[in-house]
Amino acid sequence: MKLRRWIVAGAVAVATVAALNVAPATAGRPYDPAAQSLRALAQRHGLYIGTAVDMDALADPADPRYRELAGSEFSTVTAENAMKWESLEPTRGTYNWGPADELVEFARQHGQRVRGHVLVWHNQLPAWLTEGVADGSIDKAELRRILRDHVTAVVRHFKGRIWQWDVVNEAVSDPWDTPSTLHYKGFWAEHLGPGYIADAFRWARAADPKALLFYNDYNIEAFGSGNPADDKTQFVYEMARDLRARGVPIDGVGSQGHLGTQYGNYDTLQVAAALRRFAGLGLATAFTEVDVRSQLTPGVQAGDSAEINPRLQASAANFSTLLRACLAERHCLSFTLWGFTDRHSWVPDWFENPPEGLATAYDEDYRPKRAYQEMKADLIFSGPPFVLPRVPQQPRR
Ligand code: XIL
To answer: Where is the signal peptide (predicted)?
Structure first.
């Protein structure tokens, strides 16, 4: 009896190890989860872990560590800039696919999936387009055709090689905009009206039936008042619900996840609840651009540990909040960092007054920070019954 119980227990242990896809001790060396990459640890959850990639850094022979880590720590990549309209079509009618193709090839060589970023956005548009609209040489009907042709050309070019497309990015205003009542903002809404959103999803679907089509935005990590006039998450939720109700082929909502340690931010349960509500619409979710910036006070810049330490710890906690929420929600398919090292981060260039930085998981010398270790710990210590493998999303027709 005793022996039987022992055998059963042993079989259960072996089965558990197999189910978790954890390698047993090999050649006398015990399995050390902390020595695994983020991507290896995420794989056990069926979660893809990603980074935005700066193509100049990737190609820089003087900075080999960037390429090594981009290839080894991540299972999905996003072009930080190379797939934006101004990069792809700087001159009207002449596409420059080179850098974007290089990233897709890098991903293939490293067994990674690609998030396509971005088809329709009001920033980083080529000058010929914005100037043509401003001086009246491109009218509304032509603008709509130009947008249709762009979405079609880009999606077709990468057909079959993009896992998730950010079809429309940042279409919704913020409470600090004028008017403060939330509304569709920016170049496309101003010139075409909000109908461009549904159009873009339909055009993208026509050009690639298999890619997952996402709406992507920031400050939608958690619900607020529940009133779409001032709660951006609610506004986006209702937009997505209406698109689904009208049969528009939207498959997911991407939450960028740009946080800052100076803000109140969120707790894990709030964020998980928001992801679950989007999943309730039949949508996949993803964190698409996670970073956690901090103000670079004179003390921080002078190396004062009393000012640096709390920032690094708050940063780690915020990365962890988003990652745990994603792990807890089975429809959250991927967790992408907006750059992985402070050596190449958009934050110091974009947030200058006051100066901000320290936003990523590795420092400028590629030393992993607490944020990296905490994400790793989250991936190691999460599991059944509350964290279960992902539910794959089927592209909507
Ligand atoms: C940023 C890039 O990181 C910068 O290099 C570029 O100069 C500006 O754009 N939301 C988005 C991203 O969807 O495309 C932005 O990327 C960051 C904010």
So the answer is: 1-27
